[in-house]
Amino acid sequence: MVRIGGCGPPDPCSNHGFGPYYIFLKYKQLIPLMANLELVRGTRDFLPEEKIFRDRIISIFRTAFENYGFVPIETPAIEKWETLSAKFAGGASILEETYNFDDRAGRKIGLRYDLTVPLARVVAMNPNLIMPFKRYSIDKVWRYEEFKPGRYREFYQCDCDIVGVKSMLAESECFSMAVNIFSKLGFDDYIIKLNNRKILSALLDYAGIKTKKDEVFLIIDKLDKMGSDEASKMLIEIGIKKEKIEKLFKTLQIKGSSEKILVELEKLISKNEGIDELREILSYGKLMGFGSRIQISLSLVRGLSYYTGTIFEFSVSESKIGTITAGGRYDSMISKFAGKENEIPAFGISFGIERIIDVMKKRNMYKSESSLTKVFTAPILDKVLPDAIVIAENLRKKGINTEIEMLSRTLKKQLEYADKKGIEYVVILGEKEISEKMATVRNMKTKEEKKINFNDIYSIIK
User: The dihedral of CA 12, 15, 17, 23: what is its sign?
Assistant: First the structure.
């Protein structure tokens, strides 16, 4: 038996009063746990400089979501395995990357791999939700997948979903919102790759591929990355004949304007609901201002098996990052969770926060801040500390982020501290200032100083 300790009484040999962690080997010796400190692969710490930046980005998302009428929900990080592994949920491929374990009662539990399946469960469990139900969620998910630039094993998803709307207005609202967000973030060179699962299914029928469609979809989804030769080999391995593969690939390579592609598709597969739906999105795109960014991509599949209609990706030019936002329509999953025959339409968009931030860093769109403090109160002597505290408390009550000197440092050291942290103002207090009820307010950017009455400090720094 191995037990890890460290919550006991302080170690008298420790300068900090906290004992080291130990491993107790049953009935044997006491061995200190060496400080081999490493992160779990695919996870990260966020120190203040990056955490502040990330929070500012997330704030832009949250503001935009609420501007479009979305409301927040929160779900547990863990779900029952039968929920995550339902055949109408993410599919076998994603389950291979899902962290799972047995709890003490022997029940199988999994860490959520996305925020869509938990949403479907929530809607199924709450049949009285007002429709359309427009929700957003910004939270962590976990996938044990290849660790590379823009792809982590613990990461944030930033999702919006519209439940209860069959019209392509749901897609178009989300696209419009995304365009507004990227404008605020400073992006301009992105495209919206657009496709429809109904079109893909019809193209497989046209090529004579009637079985193993889910397997074929997963291979097509990797077509751009692996190339047609490798994809053909994989399709042959699962039993698809060469002539059918060639016929399919020829249709997937149709190029041109969005309307031209749709016209060519109609020649091949005749009337198709997916074509009508893409045309509806294109018409809304003209009204909402994102139509010029759309590129219909017939080889776009999206790996998750729950998609039933529209699928899309927002992509930037960086080859190692690529997709920064993606999602699609999943009209069957919620009704199956709820045990209902009639479909409950739903559409979702997921912003790749990690990838967006990585691209922003690469492009020097990243602004480093190490503090959220606006004012630092700098008492020169310990005897004026009470007055510094009163001033700080008054500023805080007015909503001004304020720090107080706590280490009894010299004024020079205090100014150096404020400068390093990027604090905008320092309120300097000495015996003379206290006797006059005046403070010296130093602007750390311009280096200008003003003497001002205690009661008027707020008017200078607000």
Answer: negative
Which domains are delineated in the chain?
A: 2-32 (no CATH), 48-362 (3.30.930.10), 375-461 (3.40.50.800)
For residues 317 and 189, give the distance between their C-alpha atoms in angstroms, rounded to a whole number: 7
> In whole angstroms, how far apart are CA 420 and each of 405, 408, 453?
14, 18, 27
Checking DSSP bridges between strand 323-329 and strand 310-315, what pairing results, if any?
Answer: antiparallel
Contacts with 357 (C-beta within 8 Å, 6 or more apart), sequence order: 53, 54, 57, 366
**CA proximity to 127, closest of 349, 308, 307, 337:** 337
Q: What mean pLDDT comes out for the span 189-201? A: 95
Q: Note the pLDDT tens digit of each residue in 78-118.
A: 999 999 999 888 888 889 999 999 999 999 999 999 999 99
Contacts of 181 (CB under 8 A, 6+ apart): 60, 61, 64, 351
CA 206 centroid distance within chain = 38
Report whether 397 contacts 375 (CB < 8 A): no
* 219-242 tens-digit pLDDT: 988 887 888 889 999 999 999 999
Which of these, 330, 328, 325, 297, lies nearest to 223 by C-alpha position? 297
